[in-house]
Design goal:
Length: 272
């Protein structure tokens, strides 16, 4: 004979099951949820942090294919593309650069300049005479790297950190009022060890946003190694490797008048 409590429980269970679907197991429910998310997820639309009216300064262009893609596929007509190498050096490392620079130089609003040191953009006598003229809305350094200076990982990381800090300091003084510094680096080690966010914070910059870099959004672009093309083409393709783009802005209260900022940058360079 059922007690009053047992009868009440049985009646409640009968009410839950009669006329209703069987309760789904947690494992099956999770699988269906995952399947639903896969069906609903649309391909991620690439983020393009440029617009045709942007005054863009490109630092450390390898073969200039990125600059050419901005011009021909994104309508950016105010481009100043620079290389750390001399012109003969760049053409020797990247023969394809000849066609890219020819296309850029054919446009009235585009400039190509060689021998520009990312560390000393505002220092007289360090190359980049045209770089110091005017201010920019976007200053871009894609895949900064000092090259294979050493096999010691810690020393290599430190060298690249120093490169970025010096670049940030130099670039800051060339920014327009609402300008941005854009840096793209590979994901994973040793690049994560650079701590790019902290480096930027150290010189008065903040991360406005970051996003996955999608090379396919820039037709014609090919990643150029610091040391030059791999003989025979090789199997390593940087544009297929996961990378992240960081957008930096000047932190509140950190912006100095342009001339004052440039004088300080010159002084810092001379005292290294």
């Amino acid at each position: 004979m059922e007690s009053g409590i047992e009868a009440a429980n049985n009646q409640h269970l009968a009410h839950l099951t009669i006329g209703r679907r069987p309760i789904m197991g947690k494992s099956k429910k999770r699988k269906l949820q995952k399947l639903s998310l896969k069906v609903k997820a649309a391909p991620q639309r690439p983020t393009i942090p440029f617009d045709p009216s942007s005054r863009i300064l490109l630092i450390g262009e390898g073969d200039f294919s990125f600059a050419r893609s901005l011009l021909e596929h994104h309508g950016c007509i105010s481009l100043h593309a620079t290389s750390f190498d001399t012109r003969p050096g760049a053409l020797s490392k990247y023969p394809q650069a000849a066609a890219h620079t020819k296309a850029l130089e054919a446009e009235e609003g585009c400039k190509v300049e060689y021998g520009v040191d990312a560390r000393k953009l505002c220092r007289p006598g360090s190359g980049g005479k045209e770089v110091r003229k005017g201010q920019r809305d976007k200053i871009v350094f894609n895949f900064p790297h000092v090259g294979g200076l050493t096999k010691d990982v810690n020393r290599q990381v430190r060298a690249n950190q120093e490169l970025l800090v010096d670049f940030f300091r130099s670039a800051k003084s060339l920014l327009a009022a609402e300008g941005q510094i854009i840096v793209t680096i590979f994901e994973g080690e040793p690049y994560d060890l650079w701590n790019v966010r902290d480096l930027a914070r150290h010189v008065g910059l903040k991360v406005e946003r970051s996003f996955r870099f999608q090379a396919s959004a820039y037709p014609g672009y090919k990643h150029a190694r610091t040391l030059g093309n791999i003989e025979g083409g090789g199997g390593w393709k940087g544009e297929e490797r996961p990378a992240r783009t960081y957008i930096f802005e000047v932190s509140n209260g950190q912006r100095l008048p342009v001339q004052q900022e440039r004088k300080r940058e010159w002084h810092d360079s001379e005292s290294d």
